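Tokens as discussed.
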């Protein structure tokens, strides 16, 4: 982006580095809960001041909160919250917020399979500032097309191919990390 900044305005370009995106397939819901605890602990140990555990719906967030042993806040209503520590919330409550670390649970093809789900998954992925993990059981979402390569140490967030408008079927790479990560998630039109 530095090449597009007009020096007269005194703006500086910067890259925010982060760990590679982690994609974890789990055998069952119990394993996914154990992996969730490991991911949150890993992120907190790495210095993440806040970690968001993002679900698709408020009902899923409430159920997860009841099942997990995480020391976390459940956020499902519009009111003031302390956004420090570990938070469990549905994706619609995360929109407009950013977190040091994000764990997306149930990133499977049953949960994220429709056109509207594509947008929700995009919002969830782009909430992460430094670390992003996606957990799933069964088949991962059709929008997650490739596994991140571990040697790419500067992957912050997953860049996605996202439809500009339904009639045009044109796509644009969103510049949300230093490298183009569009190969991780596909936001091309469902076929």
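Sequence:
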């Amino acid at each position: 982006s530095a090449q597009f900044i007009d020096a007269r305005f005194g703006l500086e370009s910067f890259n925010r580095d982060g760990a590679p995106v982690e994609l974890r397939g789990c055998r069952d819901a119990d394993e996914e809960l154990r992996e969730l605890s490991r991911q949150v602990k890993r992120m907190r140990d790495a210095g993440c001041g806040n970690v968001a555990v993002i679900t698709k719906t408020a009902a899923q967030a409430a159920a997860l909160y009841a099942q997990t042993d995480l020391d976390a806040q459940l956020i499902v209503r519009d009111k003031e919250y302390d956004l420090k520590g570990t938070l469990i919330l549905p994706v619609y409550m995360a929109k407009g917020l950013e977190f040091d670390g994000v764990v997306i649970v149930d990133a499977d093809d049953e949960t994220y399979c429709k056109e509207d789900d594509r947008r929700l998954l995009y919002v969830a992925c782009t909430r992460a500032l430094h670390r992003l993990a996606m957990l799933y059981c069964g088949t991962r979402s059709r929008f997650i097309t490739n596994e991140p390569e571990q040697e790419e140490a500067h992957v912050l967030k997953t860049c996605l191919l996202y439809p500009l408008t339904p009639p045009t079927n044109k796509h644009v790479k969103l510049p949300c990390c230093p490298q183009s990560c569009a190969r991780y998630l596909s936001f091309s039109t469902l076929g």
